[in-house]
Design goal:
Clc chloride channel; 22 helices; 0% strand; globular; Chloride channel protein
């Protein structure tokens, strides 16, 4: 029979087992008991609340600017012919002279900052200067009657705020890329009061070519930004509550028609905006490049004239017109989608800061209104919602994000399956027209332009590729080159336990460097 050992040996074995158990428990308990870890968590929560508060201030300020312009139009309609050109010119002058990196939507800048490893480029797109300038210049644009939205700028503002705590100086709170993605998702969640839409936006749009990890920074940012919006603005839905729905199987035709029309229109709009980013053709393009301030003033004048010709329905985000159409208060004219798309393009080519997210919803509502004229037996409000999700999915090529955001904005869960079908059909038609999504093409173009500026290249900027390059090879090697040793992102997650006895005892010990042999 095998010997059971002496009592002393048995006690030693139990002691070793107890020490191993205590060592393992201490290793996993340290992240929750460490003051340094809690300081990082509190800092993350603090900047997330700040991002949500900035989004709320942005929303209130944007509404006030739109209301002031509306009152100005009713008091003296001719004043818009002065305010719009002057506002566009001042914005472009300030943007080009003092605030480069704030022009346009803001979503491409956030995507570009998340793709690059160069901190110089990140500072160009995400900084305190960008936060203040983006908000103020967007307010001036809405006050001038520009057809821009605040949702895209809110993404850049949120990403900039969370990027303030990135890097080693704050003790590696989270990877810089994760903080940028979390800030962008928080901006969408607070701007639309759509928490689930914010998470899906971070996954589908900001992490399209990166492996997304459901890390604590992203979830914390979206949750607390949503709480700030809920506490200040209340539990509201962006477009109110829409209970209309389409019948089955007759509702299949509105889904297919809206999906096809919204996808084709979104794809064509994407190609137009990408081509305009490369530069306008002929003498017009040369004039825009030589005299950008004067060109912006002309775009402002055309925006004012279009608004006057349509009775003021093309100014601003288009929120009021879309909401009135959904509630059945006012009908959208058949030309609304074309006029709204035209003023969106004018704001884009002028170079003023401002997004196209909310105006795209208005264009989609116009598409739905026109299709509803062909289908008198169906609910016009339901078809408007289908048109909104179709055009948004067509121009962003993010069908899941589009259908969830529109469903949350209208509080209409009965339309889940029709919205899903319209979004999927729209993406298929859009990709057949525009292979590259809009925001990604613009982000690549911005990265190439600023990289050549930093390198001092005299070659003219190349247009965005017709096919999306692999982000790891094309972006990090061709555009940026291999990352410098001092810029490698070795940040660790907040709750990841440290390895080794020294790391257990010393909270400030640096984490092990990642294995780059593969």
């Amino acid at each position: 029979m095998p010997s059971s050992g002496t009592p002393r040996e048995s006690i030693s074995a139990h002691t070793r087992a107890f020490k191993q158990l205590a060592r393992g428990g201490r290793r996993y308990a340290l992240p929750w008991l460490s003051p340094g870890r809690w300081r990082k968590r509190l800092m993350l929560v603090g900047v997330t609340l700040l991002a949500g508060l900035a989004a709320v201030v942005f929303a209130i300020g944007a509404d006030l600017a739109i209301e002031v312009h509306r009152l100005l139009y009713h008091e003296a309609w001719w004043a818009t012919l002065i305010v719009a050109p002057a506002g566009f010119a001042v914005i472009v002058w300030a943007t080009r002279r003092y605030f480069p990196g704030t022009e346009g939507s803001g979503i491409p800048q956030a995507i570009a900052a998340s793709l690059t490893e160069d901190n110089r480029i990140r500072r160009q797109f995400l900084s305190i200067r960008v936060i203040v300038a983006k908000m103020v210049l967007t307010f001036i644009g809405l006050l001038s009657g520009a057809s821009i939205g605040r949702e895209g700028p809110t993404v850049q503002v949120g990403a900039s705020i969370l990027n303030l705590i990135s890097g080693k100086k704050h003790g590696r709170i989270a990877p810089t890329r994760d903080l940028i993605v979390a800030g962008g998702g928080a901006g969408v969640a607070a701007a639309f009061n759509t928490p689930l839409g914010g998470i899906l936006f971070a996954i589908e749009e900001l992490s399209r070519y990166r492996a997304f990890k459901a890390t604590s920074p992203t979830l914390v940012a979206v949750i607390f930004a949503g709480l700030i919006s809920l506490a200040t603005l209340g539990n509201y839905t962006y477009f109110g509550q829409t209970l209309a729905s389409v019948s089955w199987p007759d509702g299949l035709w509105p889904v297919l028609m809206c999906g096809a029309a919204g996808g084709l229109a979104g794809g064509l709009m994407t190609r137009l905006l990408i081509a305009s980013y490369r530069g306008l053709p002929g003498r017009v393009g040369q004039f825009a490049a030589d005299r950008p301030v004067m060109f912006a003033a002309i775009c402002g004048l055309l925006t004012a004239l279009t608004g006057l010709a349509t009775g003021g329905i093309t100014w601003g985000t288009g929120y009021a017109e879309s909401k009135a159409a959904l509630e059945g208060v006012e009908a959208l004219p058949f030309y609304f989608m074309f006029a709204k798309a035209f003023v969106i393009w004018l704001a884009f080519i002028s170079g003023i800061p401002g997004g196209i997210f909310a105006p795209a919803l208005a264009v989609g509502a116009g598409i739905g209104a026109d299709i509803a004229l062909l289908l008198p037996g169906e609910s016009s409000s339901a078809i408007l919602v289908l048109g909104m999700v179709s055009f948004l999915a067509g121009i962003t090529q993010s069908p899941i994000t589009s259908l969830v955001i529109v469903m949350e904005m209208t509080a209409n869960h009965q339309m889940l399956l029709p919205l899903m079908g319209a979004a999927v059909v729209s993406q298929g038609f859009s990709r057949s027209v525009a292979p590259v999504p809009l925001y990604d093409a613009l982000a690549i173009g911005m990265l190439k332009d600023i990289t050549r500026q930093l390198r001092g290249s005299s070659q003219p900027p190349e247009p965005p590729e017709t096919e999306m390059p692999d982000p790891h090879e094309a972006m990090l090697e061709e555009i940026m080159g291999p990352p410098r040793p001092d810029e490698e992102d070795t940040d660790a997650d907040l709750d990841a336990p440290k390895q080794g006895s020294e790391a257990e005892m010393d909270e400030s010990a640096p984490p092990p460097k990642p294995d780059t042999s593969s």
